[in-house]
Amino acid sequence: MYTPHDFRRMFATEAVTGGLPVHIAARILGHMTLTTTQAYLAVFQDDLVRTYRGFLDRRRADRPQDEYREPTEQWHDFQQHLELRKVSLGTCGRPYGTPCKHEHACIRCPVLQMDPRQKPRLTEIIQNLRERIREARANGWLGEVEGLQGSFDAAMAKLSSLKRSPTDGRPQLVDLGMPVFTTMHPRPGGDREGPANQP
Q1: Which H or E element spans position 197?
Q2: Integer CA distances (angstroms), 45 to 7, 53, 55, in order
Q3: Cβ atoms of residues 146 and 165 within 8 Å
Q4: Would you tell me how many other CB atoms lie within 10 Å of the CB of residue 120?
Q5: Residues forming beta bridges with residue 192, ordered by sequence position
Q6: Model pTM?
Q7: Residue of 23, 101, 17, 25 lying closest to 51 (CA atoms)
Q8: 114-123 pLDDT, tens digit each
């Protein structure tokens, strides 16, 4: 059994999937916002794909043919950049066209995006750095100790961030606590002063 509202929804869906712009449908239905109209639309996956392909075909027909060019050498450079971003501990986050500022010392680099699956490898690196620091101190190589200590601190920070981040990739709930409300007292001049517990 249908209700009048069902017919409004059917009209909105048929009109928009038939090519009527959604903002025009919103005016016809008397909606104040597009969000309300979009809630009326029952757009299914095949409708979405068909409509988008039709949109692309119309755009390509209107665009001059000489604007469709083969990928240039710059595209290959861009692809190579993405390949070079893959490192043993994860992915280098540096933008395209920028050099590596840390001479490929990824463990120190703040733009390294750690892969959680590489946690055992990171643990091995930390253990190796700890042993090298011990050896350098025993031999009095103080310059070596300073450099290794910087790498060790950076590695420990990355390990700590891996422990804080979820391993399954899903967002986790964060308890922000209950908000605390304070009483405001009016000043003699009419404006308000700070909370009551402040001097």
Answers
A1: none
A2: 21, 12, 15
A3: no
A4: 8
A5: 186
A6: 0.46
A7: 17
A8: 888 899 999 9
